[in-house]
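Reply to dn_fold:

You asked what the input looked like. This is it:
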Amino acid sequence: MVKYLYADPLKCSGCKICELVCSFTFNGVLDPNRARIKVVSLGHLDEVLVCRNCRDAPCIEACPREAIYRDERGVVMVNEVKCVGCGTCVKVCPFEAIKVHPNRKVAVKCVLCGSCIEWCPAECLEVVEE
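and this is what came back:
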């Protein structure tokens, strides 16, 4: 089973509170550029870009430093000690869900912490299993 954060585009209001909560949870600042989740407007719908923890995760295969791995929960994780911020994982991600942190220069992605779910006023976020 693969777990990932699902955002219902029919419920999402595009408020981007999830981005702020994420950046505050992991960086102690309210800065969407440091969030591990991203909300994009697609006309009448808002889509949340977030890691899907792919079964055959291309980011794991592409990482030249073997810094990306799957933990015991099945969540794709980044070992920030091994990561050099080369961005190879960013290029191969089909969901645009991993990025290089603008200050720390290491890859970051959703780790299913649940903070965004707790604070989402539209209640559009949930962890699902495939």
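The longest helix spans residues 17-27.
Hope that clears it up.
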